[in-house]
TrEMBL record:
Top-level EC class as recorded in UniProt: transferase
Record keywords: Isoprene biosynthesis, Magnesium, Metal-binding, Transferase
Organism: Caldibacillus thermoamylovorans
Protein name: Farnesyl diphosphate synthase
Catalytic activity, EC: 2.5.1.10
Recorded GO MF terms: (2E,6E)-farnesyl diphosphate synthase activity; metal ion binding
InterPro entries on file: Isoprenoid_synthase_dom_sf, Polyprenyl_synt, Polyprenyl_synt_CS, Prenyl_diphosphate_synthase
Family: Belongs to the FPP/GGPP synthase family.
GO cellular component: cytoplasm
Record-level GO BP terms: terpenoid biosynthetic process
Amino acid sequence: MQKYPDHLANYLETVNKELKIMIQRLKTPETLKNAMDYSLQAGGKRIRPMLIFSTLAAFKKDVAIGLPVACAVEMVHTYSLIHDDLPAMDNDDFRRGKPTNHKMYGEATAILAGDGLLTYSFQIISEIKQLSAEKRLAIINELAKASGPEGMVAGQIADMEGENQNLQLTELEYIHTHKTGKLLTFCVKVGAILADADKATIDLLEQFGYHIGLAFQIRDDILDVEGTIEQIGKDVGSDREKQKSTYPKILTLNGAKNKLKEHIAKAEGILESLPIDTGQLSFITELIAKRDR
Ligand code: GRG
């Protein structure tokens, strides 16, 4: 993995520590605590928290205000990975180079660990004392839309239904804007909400999220083809009969690389048009374009 510059390494460290504390203080059986903690601390890149902090930095706000929401969004993301790895879904034995949650704790506990993370994320946001009740509700609403049946869950079912079919580009884009893009978009949007940004700026950041969401996925597909993704962490034990449509399959590898450049250029263009200090967001955009895992 690329080495993070100091500011991103600090964000990662802060989130890892806070997530540990949040799980430790739960009054719940140790098995569930351990299963939730295991996947939360399994080496995620923390791109989503970094987007929240970098958006707050763009508005010259104290990034600390974004910490509980950053942890909440990692809980939602982690729940989605735990459930996605289950035998009923992708049936993966390894993630990030480590045994998947159900391989460590069994299927039933893995389902509950995912359920626990999803619901705890909303509890965390509802309890942020520094925010008004109105703001907490707005953030909860945005997170529910991004992760629920109009967001990530919609993307996941469309993905399942698209297996073994030759999808059109628009159908593939539906899957990825929902499955991956909505949660990434939530992160920049929530940063703007926390910073009291105006609607026009929030709308532009939402478009930025759309482009980095697709770029993120196209990079994933390219890494798959080029075989540079850590194979032990990804596909071992997955259900190889399932054929999924990908950008390189639809557009060719070169076409996918061009599409990635297009989305990155559009994302950068939006950042340049904003009257805020988008340096950190621009850095993450580059990271997404060039990531090696
Ligand atoms: C089960 C409701 C439900 C949804 C699952 C997100 C998702 C939907 C499935 C994950 C499978 C997958 C490989 C999606 C493509 C892109 C993606 C979200 C990759 C993982 O995100 P990263 O790279 O993960 O940010 P880390 O490990 O860094 O946290």
